[in-house]
Amino acid sequence: MISLYDPFEGMQFGLGRCFLTGQPVGPADTVPVFADWLQATYHLAERPVYLLDHSQTTYQALRLPVAPALRPRLAALEAEIEAAAQQGPAALRALPPARLWQWLGKMFYGIFAAELVQQQQPLIKPLYPLAENAQLLQRFRAFFQLLQGLRVPTDYADFVPGSVFVLEVDDQYEAPVFEYDDDLNTLVFSIKLGRSVLVATLVDIGFIGQAMRQVYADAQRPLHPAQVAEFKARTYYAAYLLAAVPDIYPRRPGPLDPLDVELVLDALVDDVTATIFNPWDNLAYAHTLTGLWPRWSLTEELIMRNPFQPLSLLYDAAEQPQPAAAAAEQLAVLAYSG
């Protein structure tokens, strides 16, 4: 069985060591965090990326060190996602969830590593000092063990490493062609590729996907961009409420495992005595929603006019899924009424 690398021992981040194996690599042995095809398709190379300490870099400058032997595996993953992305949301939904998770997880880790390198600067005061937050460190360690599936053919035994949702944006409404956002504190990541929006919670082993399965089913239609933002708010807040941190156990493949895998990862959560989700709080959710609705000037006060039922654009007053056009009309009425 392969020996799993743990970069959190000694906080080994930055260039010089393969981000998946820890072996020394040369300065030219890197891959872009945001793949070349993404940079070319959406003209990203020179666009700025802002880090938590308010410093600035560019998409093309964000790179991960990688052992040359792993380049073909990462290239194959990028080619698989690129082909699906060109076809649209349905093709992305048809991909194995673990492959989408690995692709999103690689980008999330690349941004996270850049943040940590910045935090190691002597004059920087970290916003999320990882070494001082035991639970956050535990979550990142679990996430990184799951991400080791990028190294070799891996089977996530009877679970998905995280919850990945693919949404479709109704393109008759104005919205950026490309955008991404993340939250390092809750390990969530979202990226918009034209009409497709991928939203992922990266270390919940599917709990959030189960909790949101009805909302996700109701969202399988072209959505207004503000409806997409609401779905993201529900997902991000669920990640905030998630209290359980999985224990990940690597093992050798057994006779009942797939023949072509080299690594099997098992996940365990004590769901008998442990709490999976902390209690929902409408006001805290409204705060999350406000942060994702600034484009439409929907204030927290407006969202909480009914304190027992925060404003929704995904659902109408009868709590039925509503189409994008109805959401647009609702937004117009809210703008007029103030």
State the helix count: 11
Question: What would the average pLDDT be, to the nearest integer?
Answer: 91
Relative strand content: 15-25%
Tell me the span between the first and last alpha carbons.
62 Å
Question: What ranges have pLDDT less than 50 throughout 5 or more consecutive residues?
Answer: none
Q: How are the strands ordered across the major sheet?
A: 7-8-9-6-10
What is the multimeric organization of the chains shown?
single chain
Secondary-structure content class: alpha+beta
Instruction: Please report the total strand number as a whole number.
Output: 12
Q: Give the proportion of residues in helices.
A: 25-40%
**Largest sheet report:** 5 strands, mixed
Chart the SSEs and their pairings.
Layout: E1 30-32, H1 36-41, E2 48-50, E3 56-58, E4 63-65, H2 71-87, H3 89-94, H4 97-119, H5 134-147, E5 154-156, E6 163-169, E7 178-183, E8 188-193, E9 196-201, H6 207-211, H7 213-218, E10 222-223, H8 225-241, E11 247-251, E12 263-268, H9 282-292, H10 300-303, H11 324-337
